[in-house]
Recover the amino acids of this structure.
């Protein structure tokens, strides 16, 4: 097996890609964390052919070609309309278990959820799309206290119960739509089929990866991960490296020989968030140089040849976007040139000229 991080860059469609549509990226990866909406759009753009813009990804979201909902780990993800229902069926029970403490704390029980789900479904019938605030006002009218965190968990449960998913944005506000209307062609799979499907997609798109990586990424139990690997073992190969078993698919072509290929990854990018063990890509000695919370997960990373070499942030100014680079150590001339190219690609994605600063 080649270098782990180089193989991951290739399998995640970063090193080279044949994908043209945002939905193709989401389907390939299985799901894409989208807690931070703007950066999540860039995560898709990085994995698409040059020329795809932020506006193109926004249009795909508006048209329902990609959806945003809570699935797998209890956070937002982009998913495809075809996959949303079986992904929810497979992973929502675990998310509900993770939410159980807050359900009790907020005095939310199954009887209330049945009532709120029914009211939300009625309000959204016929293609209606409402913001969370509007759903809260509607629930208040029928005597359901729905504000603050309580409203958040009520709507969250409606997502997990496959009642709602994302609608189009209204300005900068997110809306909710009926899942049945937004994704009428959503597939349903038997649980074992869904488990095999998600396991195969993860190790094909994220491999080389360990069973522990998949358990973290999917939110599934270790027993489910073991069962999933047994189901798709014939499609994968595995190797032992430094005492750990890494699984991956041989169905994708090998990476090209590249040197000093740089990427400006957004916060929560799948190249980072897709693994619980990030030692192959990041030297923990640089943890104190991260910002703002000394955790690689919460930062936007500069990656060169698969290794995290610094962080970056962007600020939109009038007529330009300023990309502030913070490498952990001085970059060589070749590395600096590669990072400049990566920054220019980001500027093309957002449709603005770029100014790089250190």
């Amino acid at each position: 097996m080649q270098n782990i991080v180089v193989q991951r860059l290739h399998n995640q469609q970063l090193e080279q890609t044949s994908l043209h549509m945002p939905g193709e990226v989401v389907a390939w990866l299985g799901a894409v964390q989208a807690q931070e909406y703007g950066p999540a759009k860039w995560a898709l753009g990085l994995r698409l052919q040059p020329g795809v813009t932020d506006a193109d990804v926004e249009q795909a979201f508006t048209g329902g070609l990609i959806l945003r909902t809570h699935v797998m780990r209890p956070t937002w993800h982009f998913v495809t309309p075809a996959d949303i229902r079986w992904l929810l069926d497979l992973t929502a029970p675990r998310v509900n278990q993770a939410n159980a403490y807050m359900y009790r704390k907020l005095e939310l029980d199954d009887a209330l959820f049945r009532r709120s789900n029914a009211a939300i479904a009625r309000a959204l019938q016929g293609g209606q799309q409402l913001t969370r605030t509007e759903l809260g006002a509607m629930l208040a009218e029928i005597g359901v206290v729905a504000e603050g965190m309580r409203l958040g968990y009520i709507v969250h449960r409606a997502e997990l119960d496959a009642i709602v998913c994302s609608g189009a944005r209204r300005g900068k506000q997110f809306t909710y739509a009926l899942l049945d209307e937004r994704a009428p062609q959503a597939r349903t799979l038997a649980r074992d089929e869904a488990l095999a499907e998600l396991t195969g997609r993860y190790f094909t798109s994220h491999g080389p990866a360990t069973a522990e990586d998949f358990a973290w990424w999917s939110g599934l139990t270790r027993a489910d991960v073991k069962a999933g690997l047994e189901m798709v073992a014939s499609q994968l190969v595995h190797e032992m490296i430094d005492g750990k078993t890494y699984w991956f698919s041989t169905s994708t072509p090998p990476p090209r020989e590249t040197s000093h290929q740089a990427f400006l990854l957004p916060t929560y990018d799948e190249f980072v968030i897709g693994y619980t063990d990030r030692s192959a890509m990041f030297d923990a000695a640089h943890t104190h140089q991260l910002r703002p919370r000394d955790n690689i997960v919460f930062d936007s990373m500069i990656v060169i040849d698969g290794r995290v070499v610094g962080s970056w942030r962007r600020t939109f100014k009038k007529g330009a976007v300023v990309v502030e680079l913070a490498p952990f150590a001085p970059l060589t001339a070749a590395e600096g040139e590669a990072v400049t190219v990566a920054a220019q690609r980001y500027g093309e994605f957002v449709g603005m000229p770029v100014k790089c600063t250190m």
Observations:
- The first helix runs from residue 4 to 11.
